Amino acid sequence: MDTFRKLSLIGEHEASLWIEDGMTVAIGTPHPMGLIRQIIKRRVKNLTIVDGGICLDLLIAAGCVKRSVTYYGGGGFGIPVLPMFRQAVERGAMTVFECDEGTIMTGLRAAAQSLPFLPWRGGLGTSLPDVNPEFKTFSDPLSGQTLLAVPPIKPDIALLHADAADEFGNVQHIGGAGWLDPAFFRAADRTIVQVERIIPNERIRAEPEATTFARVDAVVRAPYGAHPFFSRGHYVRDEDHIKNYLNASAKAAAGDRAALDRYLDHYCYEPNDLGDYLERVGIKRLISLYEF
Amino acid sequence: MDTSYSPFEIMSVVLARELTNDDTVLVGTAMPMAEAAQRLAGLTHAPNMEIVNSPIRMNVSHLKQFPMPAYFGDRRPMRWAESYWDKGHRFDDVRAWKRYVFFIGGIQVDRFGNTNLIGIGSNYNKLKFRGPGSVGTTTISAHVGRYYIVLNSHNERTFVERCDFISTFGWGEGGADARKCVGLPGGGPKLCVTPLCVMDFDEETKHMRLVSVHPGVTEAEVQAKTSFPVLRKGPVPTTAPPSEEELRVLRTRIDMAGQLRPTA
After folding, report:
1. Among A225, B29, B122, B167, which one is most buried in terms of CB atoms within 10 A?
2. pLDDT tens, residue by residue, A121-169
3. Cβ contact (<8 Å) for A76 and B29?
4. Which of B86, B125, B136 has its CB closest to that of A102?
């Protein structure tokens, strides 16, 4: 019998081995890019990606995705639709579990509560139940109202990025555990959280009410690990880097993959680990991304 | 001061004038005109207005400047937040949304204000154009007190006879009880604002109709760029252009980077 409490702290290579072909993987915001790049480097296939923002496009570009659970596949104002996402769907290379924020939230909640469905109202009268046969309208046995039945959305694994954790998997955020992350944590079988810094367990105990996720399955130390995206309390988005990627993605969708393949080689396949990647980005760029 | 203005600036001003002191105004992603409108109203005639930008809730009446967000998910507006709600919490207070005002975009809109962000094509499994997806619009539009359809462009490809897919139910096949019949409690779309004009919905039929055309735009131009018949309540006035004060606040306290003046 172990006489010590189990440690959750593991390395990025070991963590990436948890993601296997065909899994359903939820990607949090801020995006855990260190782990995403390891998935790409290992050429994991046939993933179902839940959310993911712009890194959904990167995973599609690298050939990792067969399906996505998507309420938004755009890149913000000026990028109406992510280029590789658009191309892959239009070509039939991947399928979409069509939903909106309310229905994805409801599906994640159904999974967290081990229910076969939860009712929801948003989506009534729309094409949602037509284009996504997993949604069904039904008559509420109590009131007789017509409602939408939303099936559980159950990730095999949630990959998240946060400010800090101790070596036992107690996670704390700056600026809140936001967006869908709390729902992913509750719905997924297992959760890996990348953190900017590891802090001593005594610090967690000094302020336990600040703990956002207790006892996640694995913690990976990843300073600047959300680059080129933001990490709350640490750095903002690297707009030039993201623009460079999206331009390469748009060119690839128009038929010329050269720039996209160069991007994947330079930033995903060639670096061995996060340290290699950050060296390629460069310290000057990284320290320019301060929040205030 | 240069009092000429861009289509996005007049749209922002039209939307800001719609917002009142008692509104709670919710804006999602990739909607710069709505972002500008809530700021303009909050800094001028609606000091009590609540601003909700995804998870961040704030009142901004005391601010000298309230800049447009640099990107979606930007934490920096948190410095003005009075509360922060993750998505779980946000979708728990649906009952309170009858006080909310919301804005939606679309790649297609029909005469009854149904809109489409899913895609274009007759077969969902073989889309000619894959859209961005519904974001939060499907659920939020179902419940909010009123919402505005805000479109970046006005042409026949956007203003269609029938949406290929409906991601947001406006007034269905028409009629004042259309939403009630489907089971949607919210108040539905109030106006549709485009770079050319402002439209509302007939009280009885809920068919879209012209309210005003922006300066320099003719009714004939609006009809030529709209696939369904454009109805009128009566004579169609010109949209009141942005005042010098509205433009000054917009440019010096909100849109310092010129997001609303893409050609400048």
Report:
1. B167
2. 999 999 999 999 999 999 999 999 999 999 999 999 999 999 999 999 9
3. yes
4. B136
The CB density around residue B89, as the number of other CB atoms within 10 Å, is 12
Do A126 and B138 make contact, defined as CB atoms within 8 angstroms? Answer: yes
User: Which residues in B lie closer than 8 A to residue A120 (C-beta atoms)?
Assistant: 139
Question: Among all residues of chain B, which has the CA nearest to that of A29?
Answer: B73
Distance from C-alpha of A147 to C-alpha of A119, rounded to nearest angstrom: 6
Nearest of B221, B167, B159, B112 to residue A129 by alpha carbon: B167
- The answer to whether A161 and A30 have CB atoms below 8 angstroms apart is yes
Convert the pLDDT of each residue in B133-188 to its tens digit: 999 999 999 999 999 999 999 999 999 999 999 999 999 999 999 999 999 999 99
Q: What CA–CA distance (Å, rounded) separates B207 from B111?
A: 6
- Does any CB of chain A come closer than 8 Å to the CB of residue B118? yes
* Residue B69 preceded by cis peptide, ω within 30: no
| CA A68, chain centre distance (Å) | 11
Query: Tens digits of per-residue pLDDT, A50-63?
Result: 998 999 999 999 99
Dist CA A201 CA A170 (whole Å): 8
Gap between the Cα atoms of A222 and B243, Å rounded: 51
Q: Pick the residue with more confidence: B78 or B98? A: B98
Q: Identify whether the C-beta of residue A123 lies closer than 8 Å to the C-beta of residue A158.
A: no
- Least Cα distance to A238 among A229, A248, A247 occurs for A229
User: Residue A87 contacts by C-beta under 8 Å, 6 or more apart in sequence?
Assistant: A93, A252, A253
DSSP secondary structure string for all residues of B115-171:
EE-SEESS-GGG-SEE----TTHHHHHHHSSEEEEE-S--STTTB-SS-SS-SB-SS
Cis amide leading into B241 (omega within 30): no
Which pTM does this prediction carry?
0.96
Below-70 pLDDT ranges, chain A: 1
Please report the sign of the dihedral spanned by the C-alpha atoms of residue A84, residue A88, residue A93, residue A95: positive
How many beta-carbon pairs below 8 A join chains A and B?
178
Residue A233 to residue B75, Cβ atoms within 8 A:
yes
B121 sits in the region (left: phi over 0; alpha: psi -120 to 50; else beta) called left
ipTM reported for the complex, 2 dp: 0.95
Is the distance from CB of A163 to CB of A232 less than 8 angstroms? yes
How many Cβ atoms from other residues are within 10 Å of residue B51's Cβ? Answer: 27
Query: What's the pLDDT at A1?
Result: 66
